[in-house]
Design goal:
- This protein is of the alpha+beta class and 368 residues long.
- A hairpin with a 7-residue loop joins β14 and β15.
- α2 runs antiparallel to α3.
- InterPro entries: UPF0194_transport (IPR050465).
- Keywords: Coiled coil, Membrane, Transmembrane, Transmembrane helix.
- Its main location: other.
Length: 368
């Protein structure tokens, strides 16, 4: 009976151990399945994520490559390496001048010809005032000079008279007291002292008049020179309002940087603004403008293709000669910054190229 009890106890313990081991095995198997499924899902997610990113990068690279291959079109204008700019001068106190006359645009100017004339009314009035001021200064100098010379002559005369009085007083004072009454002798001595005092006063008065005359004439001379200088500057400014050509070439009207309109007769222009340009007919080049966004695509020396707006069927070849280091704002084009591009080109006998012609510039071409 005791043996059967022990056997049942062993069987129960074995069954408990078996159940525990089976639970552990099931737990381990479940964890393995979960880990395997998680790894498989993670691999799929990573693969599905990498494919769109790779595709996106490849698409952007292809887009950038296509963009670099696309040609860049610029608008330019035929210009001359040697040119004369006609700028509004500072000829008076005003900062705005009206264009009174200009040589017709496109006409050929010769050296020495008047090309631009600005309104002279303001400076003419100033010249009249300065001429009147100079006349007043000269008249004042003349009148004061006469008055001061008269005062000087009077002082010199009084000085000589004082000297004579002193000599007479000395002669009287030299008479001995033995030959005169005591009162007369004392009067002679007193008159000598008085004459000496008067002579010193006259000398002092003459010195003061001479100093006054010198200072007054110096001040009047300064005033006259200043009036003459102001008048000469005004006359020079009057000449500057007529600007003449220094080189031969066609007359080209400039554009207002704010309105992008060409200047015309009757327009007002500020001091320092360029209103007309005369380019020389030799050593021509093309000036184009590139936006700051695309300036990195322009390389010095790269070939370009050129088409004149007036003769678009003719294609000219050239190359970029230089790009400005500093950008410039063109108010009429917006708030962007623009870089100046200089282009050298080969002339073609089929077309007559004149400064001022509009040109379409195409970059990204291969050299032939």
């Amino acid at each position: 009976m005791l043996l059967n009890f022990k056997s049942r106890e062993k069987v129960a313990a074995y069954n408990r151990w078996k159940r525990v081991n089976l639970s552990l095995v099931n737990l381990a198997l479940g964890l393995s399945i979960i880990f395997f499924l998680g790894s498989a899902l993670s691999s799929k997610a990573v693969a599905s994520t990498e494919r769109p990113i790779t595709a996106t990068l490849e698409g952007k690279t292809a887009s950038i490559n296509n963009r670099e291959l696309m040609p860049l079109l610029l608008t330019g204008q035929v210009a001359s390496v040697v040119s004369q700019a006609f700028i509004v001068p500072k000829a008076g106190d005003t900062w705005l001048y009206q264009i009174q006359w200009m040589m017709p645009e496109g006409s050929l100017a010769k050296p020495g010809q008047v090309v631009v004339i600005f309104d002279k009314s303001e400076i003419d009035n100033r010249i009249e005032q300065l001429e009147g001021s100079l006349l007043r200064v000269k008249a004042q100098e003349q009148s004061q000079s006469i008055e001061l010379n008269a005062q000087l002559l009077q002082a010199q005369f009084e000085l000589k008279q004082a000297k004579l009085e002193l000599e007479k007083a000395k002669l009287d004072a030299a008479i001995l007291a033995d030959f005169l009454a005591a009162k007369d002798y004392a009067d002679n001595q007193f008159n000598q002292l008085k004459a000496e005092s008067e002579l010193a006063k006259k000398r002092q008065a003459l010195s003061e008049i001479q100093d006054k005359r010198k200072a007054s004439l110096s001040q009047l001379s300064i005033d006259k020179k200043r009036a003459e200088l102001e008048l000469s500057q005004a006359l020079l400014g009057l000449e500057q309002l007529e600007i003449r050509a220094e080189i031969a070439g066609p007359v080209l009207y400039s554009r207002d940087p704010w309105t992008d309109k060409k200047y015309a007769v009757g327009d007002n222009a500020r001091i320092g603004r360029q209103v007309v340009t005369i380019p020389a007919l030799n050593e021509l080049e093309i000036i184009a403008w590139v936006n700051e966004v695309d300036v990195d695509r322009i390389k010095v020396g790269e070939p370009v293709r050129l088409r004149l707006d007036s003769q678009s069927q003719v294609v000219l070849s050239g190359n970029v000669a230089g790009v400005s280091r500093q950008a410039k704002t063109q108010p009429a084009w917006g708030s962007s910054n623009w870089f100046r591009v200089s282009i050298k080109f080969s002339p073609d006998e089929r077309v007559e190229i004149i400064p001022g012609m509009s040109v379409l510039v195409e970059t990204g071409v291969t050299s032939s």
